[in-house]
């Protein structure tokens, strides 16, 4: 029998993987991809909590839906910024944008 | 809800997510991300909400990997450099801390899922959650216009 704990554990593991990716990736596109994994883990946690605990108030499903919307908006703006980074610096790696370093 | 299907989907999800954050080949990472999100759509089906599964399939498993592939090609970043050694340590540490926090969230309880029909979810979205729904559409419009303005080549 699959319980809510199974799904929450999976969401936690996905979140750990995404966090590892955010901190270790050096290409900024890959960092944004890791952020996507983080957001999907959160959406999965919301949806599973809704399905097991509260299926008729819809709050969890609606939250998961809005997380997907916000993720899409964040990613499109992030990619547009990275395109500008590429035009001004010639690369989208983290050592290409180090001029703010003290 | 079958335990076998859950374990199969969960194992493949974790494997592909791990591959997406570790491989040096960015194109493979983008495709692996697409497969991860596709499998998460399967998990939404297991959770009895086909509407979420459809949105996940159309947005996260199709549109976002295509956009990622476009940006990978446009910025000529086929490969991601290997992480610095201190980054790997910090990454493992942060992942371990996150898992410790999540350990307390693992609850034991009944394993019964009540399916939610897309009609009910849509009705709720347009009645109880109408204001957030409209705000989300304005946010998407802003993101679209903002992305076009940011990515446009300056004339001259």
Question: Any overview of this molecule?
Answer:
The complex is a heterodimer of chains A (102) and B (156). With 102 residues, chain A is mostly helical. Chain A has a single domain (4-90), classed as Orthogonal Bundle (Helix Hairpins). Chain A has helices at residues 4-24, 28-53, 59-89. Chain A starts with a helix and ends in a 13-residue tail after the last helix. The model of chain A has no long low-confidence stretch (mean pLDDT 88). Chain B is an all-alpha fold and 156 residues long. Chain B has two domains: 1-80, Four Helix Bundle (Hemerythrin (Met), subunit A) (Up-down Bundle), CATH 1.20.120.1200; 117-156. Chain B is globular and about 50 Å long. Chain B starts with a helix and ends in a 5-residue tail after the last helix. In chain B, 29% of the residues are buried.
Descriptors:
heterodimer, A: 102 residues, Helix Hairpins, 3 helices, elongated, B: 156 residues, mainly alpha, Four Helix Bundle (Hemerythrin (Met), subunit A)
Break the fold down into its secondary structure elements and pairings:
The complex is a heterodimer of chains A (102) and B (156).
Chain A: H1 4-24, H2 28-53, H3 59-89
Chain B: H1 3-22, H2 26-46, H3 50-74, H4 85-103, H5 118-127, H6 130-151
Helix pairs in contact in B: 1-2, 2-3
Helix count, DSSP H or I runs of 4 or more residues of chain B: 6
User: Could you list the spans of chain A in which at least 5 consecutive residues all have pLDDT below 50?
Assistant: none
Major sheet size, sense and barrel closure of chain B: none
Named at the architecture level, the CATH assignment of the largest domain in chain B is Up-down Bundle
Radius of gyration of chain B: 20 Å
Ends apart, CA distance between termini of chain B: 60 Å
The CATH class of chain A is identified as Mainly Alpha
Total beta strands of chain A: 0
Q: SSE order of chain B in H/E notation?
A: HHHHHH
Total tally of structural domains of chain B? 2
CATH topology label of the largest domain in chain B: Four Helix Bundle (Hemerythrin (Met), subunit A)
CATH superfamily of the largest domain in chain B: NADH-ubiquinone/plastoquinone oxidoreductase chain 6, subunit NuoJ
Task: Give the helix level of chain A as a range of percent.
Answer: over 70%
